[in-house]
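> tool_call: predict_assembly(chains=three)
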Amino acid sequence: MTLLAVSDLKVHFPVEKGFLIKREVGRIRAVDGVSLELERGGVLGLVGESGCGKSTTARAIIGLVPVTEGSVKFQGDELTGLRPYQFRPIRRHVQMVFQDPYASLDPRLTVGAIVAEPLRNYEFKRAEAQKRVLELLDLVGLARSYAERYPHEFSGGQRQRIGIARALALSPTLLVLDEPVSALDVSIQAQIVNLLVELKARLNLAYLFIAHDLAVVRHISDRVAVMYLGEIAELASRDTLYARPLHPYTQALLSAVPVPDPEVESQRKRILLEGDVPSPDREVVGCKFASRCPLRARADSAGRCEKERPPLRPLPTVPGESEHKVACHYAELSLGETPPGAIVPAEIE
Amino acid sequence: MSESAPVVLEVRDLKTYFRTDDGADVKAVDGASFYVRAGEVLGIVGESGSGKSVANLSVLRLLPEPPAHHPSGEIFFQRNPTQRLELLRAPLSTVRKLRGREMAMIFQDPMTSLNPFLKVSRQLTEVLEEHEGTGPEESRARALELLSAVGIPAPERRIDQYPHQFSGGMRQRVMIAMALMCEPTLLVADEPTTALDVTISAQILDLLRRIHGERKTAIVLITHDLGVIAGMAHRVAVMYAGKVIETAPVRELFKKPLHPYAQGLLASIPRLDATRREELKPIGGSPPDLRAVPSGCAFHPRCPHRFEPCDKKVPPLLEVEPGHYAACFLHPQDKPPYRGPEEEKK
Amino acid sequence: MTEAVAVQEEKKEAPPRSLWGEAWSRLRKNRFAVMSLAWLSVIGIAAALAPWIVPYDPQHQEWWTGKRPPLYSHATLELIMTFSEGSAPPAPFPSSGTHVIKVKKEEARTRDLRIKVSHDGKVEHIELGPDLDADDPHSESPDVLALASGERIVAGEGEKRVAAAATTVEKGKVLPEPLAGAATGQAVLVAQWRKGERTREVEARVEQGKVASLAVDSKPEKRVEVAADEVLDVALDGSPFVHTHLLGTDDSGRDILSRIIFGGRISLMVGIVATLVSLVIGVAYGALSGYAGGRTDELMMRIVDILYAIPFMFFVIILLVLFGRSLILLFAAIGAVEWLTMARIVRGQVLSLKEKEFIEAARVSGTSTFGIVFGHLVPNSLGTVIVYTTLTIPEVILTEAFLSFLGLSVQYNGQNLESWGSLTKSGMDLALGGFPWLLLWSATALSLTLFALNFLGDGLRDALDPRLRGKG
């Protein structure tokens, strides 16, 4: 059953000029036509580099930034265009975990008050809320006595647990996780990832997991969407995407991730992309990746990449694959050949 | 790089403490020893608060003293085949002359080390003109050459722009070009790719690798990313709570980590090339608070193997296997202690 | 339970510490801030309890003790004091001994009033001394004494002779009949003295039948009335009396210490109340403007800019002149201008805070706008607000002092309410005339308090420094 359905979501931020009377002089297309679906209990990984619009997509879904165009449906209910009071009942079911555990907890409140905030907003009785807070602390592996303490007394990992406890307070069905481990120390990341995996299984949660770390996304997700400049470049089940990336950007991205193994590293060939991600304030007619695409030189003699935006289209799957959508005119060229960025999986003992 | 290449930098038993307002010391670096040979890349890996950055700031004497002070330690820098300098006790003016010329540094955030009010050209040529007395024409030519070497397109146009006109990746390239202006013998790169995106970071690492291949500069690469270490370093020093707890050639270390912390780190990171989704094995607890470092082995509260002596005695760094040193009581304690690079030569 | 959940080290059982608690412990290490806090507490408590703790009524004028230096003492006197022999003297003459009150009596001539109080606390003897202003101190000892008929002369032991007719006693002459009987020794004549209505005892020393000297002595009076405006100085048992003016008196003889405490009341009240007014307006306005953002914010801030452009002092002066110099108006006038900066500061804080993830987290948790602004944004900008408030109070105090200096001190029921500013101003005029303490004390109190507030503000800023915050 589809829990969340996003179709053709656009979030544009106007660039305004003028004194009191504003006029729009341009717009930043942070999210520019994103469609994705998430099943109940599923995990969709959303990866991309900074500025690709993955966080904005998440914030638009949860109503933190206004949607310019498109639709977000949660359990069949349209969320876009809702007034704040109309959104309130939805918030019970969709919660968010934030990236920076140092910034996402109000430093003036005790842990108990932080975790209880959603409960108070939904008219829980005081005693009831207190009981629930202690349950939640148990659930995320924090001592009950921590309820009396303040966020600054905790390390990053513990704070992130507090953030997770707050997100779980109202027993949501969908958690939007915005880079929940990237601000943490290496040795702590695994604690939080494991906690998230376990909570998902135990509470039958669905995750929209946003990260730039492809290894972490691979570890936790069922399906993965790769974003580039506000669009989805490739969307596939996890194994398909990592084993058989078809979009040249996905290939480059995967090849760029260093692997903590000198043997593997010395064997790897990388696709190095030229230049930087272009600024999202320009209107691009064709493929947004065209300016950096290594495939284009080889494939696009017709100049199609610059003229025509490639739609996110399903590609024929090989046996065992569920779906594979790619936004590239020439994705078929990658079919059948081992992409240069793919990693030959090494068996780990 | 061979085992007999000269040692460019050797740090012996370095302690860097910060005096706090209460008069207590924060022991950021507490007896760290490492060295780097000519043409070698030494990776220093550790989490936040492990002292990896502070140790290298001490090497360049970039820390304000006070509050920083050094209760012990020696830092030897081989300027040329004949001249070997001790930096920790040397007058600051001597060290200042070395900085930028013979020892250069690249930081995580290039914006902090580039002056936003000066054109890139000025910042690049300044070192050359001041230290080497090179003429403006000549140094500009060198700057242009380096900018194109670090992969900045249209350097003739870009050289007269200001730092904010460059993107993050490009700024880091400018930083690298700046670091290379005087052909330093030692390059300290402190988390050079942490602030950058994956694809940009791959570009920068590739650039560093290329530069190292061409110029054979000795590099100290500080990072928390084991992947970066695996791809770049020849030798690795793992730091924890201000101490080097394991050091070995890179393949040795990844193949057979000896210290439980290094083992834990490797087991806790998800790998892109893993075949199955298996549960990660995290290290419990949190990195230590430097104001209250645990007694004995600082890692013992988080260590799955801790036993009798761990919380009482500090384990010495011993050569558990040839060329592979670890500071842990799990290993036989009759092995030779770490004695620096000279011992290793034989 | 897997490792991930089981992971949890025991936290050392220190009590939980809020950010406020930490800031307080940092502040306590700042010596200057603590000293300032101590001084402000003293001044604050003194000002709050002024009516109960001041030694004197600050409005009570005693012109006869005007411009006295610090530590000066004199008696405080009732308007009219009555001394009668045999009854207890009026306060403040409790102790036994001989007290001297310098008075101006009878055609404004200075005399000593000598009051002897016995050990049982009763007035034993009252004596009015000779005229001290007269050129010749003996001028009251006449050479010729006219005795009316029927006046007695007492001579020797119990001997009474009465003048049959009007007669004259003259110095150097033989004592007339029928007084001549007391040829030698002393005779006491009871006569009326021409100058006054009082009956005086005249002491006539008779030598060899002649009047050797005549001296008017004070007649021991049974009862004397002294009005306050007659008193020049009082000494108890010869030494200066009881009530000490620690900081001296002003030109009207008002106690400076009391006036400074009461002045502090006004100065601090203006400082605190006007700041509170600015605080309430500024915080609410700034927080709402910052949180609303966009066009609303722009509009609200332009209003602030416009108000900023009004010359503040003119504005306040015009208000005070037009609508009277009432305290409430002063609060409102200063507060109405000071809130502008506060609003800007709070807005800036809120603008940066609202981008923080915990605000987004609150929104996701379903917290209302009101709850976010007043539950998260305002408490988190409070640190800066407190620092700025601490620094605004001295500014306002100084503004009020300046207005007082211009002669625009506030009034209540038509009376000037003295503040440190007006005290300093009135002191200024006389300080150079040899009475430096008139200026010194109020100026000192004012500057010490301003210093203290500034030190405290700095200390608070250091203690609340966000750079030290967070990283546990």
